[in-house]
Amino acid sequence: MEHGDSGKYYVSASHKLERLCQGGTMEWWRGLDTKIQLAIGISAVVVVAGIVTGVVLLTGGGNSPEIEPKLSETTLTASRDATPATEDAPTVVPATPTEKKPTPPSESEPADHVFGALRGIRDESGGTWQDLWVDIDTADFLTGNAALTYLTSQGDQDYYDPDYWYVRDEGVAITSFKISPGGAGAVDITMYTYPVMPAIGFYGPSMTPQHVSFGQFYDAIYMDEDSSHLLGRHYWFTVEEGRLVAIEEQPRDPYYEP
C-alpha cells in the first residue's frame, strides 16, 4: 500500500503482479515497457472486478433488500376463496313447472238491449214459424241534457220537456234479429197499451204491464191488419247471443194523447 500526497490510498497492480511472479517470469515482466506493464495491470484489474461482480450476482449477494410484490387484501381473499375452474358439464337448473289452473267455465255474453221502432216480423220458413226474424229501425233513447242537446241541434229546443223522452233516429239501416231456437213460444212480450188501452192521463212508467203471447202479437199485426198500431211503436228488444228473446214496449210519457 502506498500513501500519496493527496491522502488517498490506492493499490498498485504492477506491484501485486510482481510479487506473484517468480523466476523467469519476473525477468520477462521486467523486460517489458512501463506502458505495456500498466496496460496489462489495468486489464487484470478489470477482469478481476468483473469476476467478483459476476460471483456476487450469481450468489444473490448485495445489500439491496428483496422486493416482493404485495397483493391487495381483496385479491388475496379472492384467490383463497376462488373455486378452481373445471371442465365439467354445465349445471342445468331445472325449470319451475307451470302451475296448471282450472279453466273457468265459459260465461255467456251479457244480454244486449236494443232500442228502436218495430218495422215487421218475417217468417222465412214458409208458415212453420221455424225461421222467424224481427226487423227493427234502431234509434237512440234520449232524456235530460242529452235530449235537450239533440233538440237544440235540430232547432227544436222549445219542445223540450224534462218529463218526456225523445228519439234520435239517424236513418240507420233496418237491423234484423232471429228469434231464439225455441221458436215463438220462447219470446217474452210485455206491453203497456195493448190489449187494454189505459185512460188518458194514466200513461207512463206506472202503467200496469200486460204480457201477451207471440202468436197474439203476431196476429194483431198481420191478421187484424194492425188495427192496434203495434208496428211503428218503440220497443226495447233483448238479444242474447245474437237471438231475440224478449220485446218490451217503451211506456209513453204521461202527457201523450193518442
Please explain how this structure is put together.
The chain has 258 residues and is an alpha+beta fold. Helix content is 27%, strand content 21%. The chain is built from 6 helices and 11 strands. The strands form 3 sheets. A 5-stranded mixed beta barrel has the order 3-4-7-11-10. A hairpin with a 2-residue loop joins strand 10 (234-240) and strand 11 (243-249). The longest helix has 26 residues, at 34-59.
What topology emerges from the helices and strands here?
Layout lengths: L1 E2 L5 E2 L2 H8 L3 H7 L3 H26 L13 H9 L30 E12 L8 E7 L1 E3 L1 H10 L12 E3 L6 E5 L8 E4 L18 E3 L1 H9 L11 E7 L2 E7 L9
Parallel strand pairs: 7-11, 8-11
Antiparallel strand pairs: 1-2, 3-4, 3-10, 4-7, 5-6, 8-9, 10-11
Q: What is the number of E strands?
A: 11
Radius of gyration over C-alpha positions, nearest whole angstrom? 62 Å
Q: How many separate helices?
A: 6
Could you tell me how far the N terminus lies from the C terminus, measured between alpha carbons in angstroms? 156 Å
Concise structural overview:
The chain is of the alpha+beta class. It is 27% helix and 21% strand.
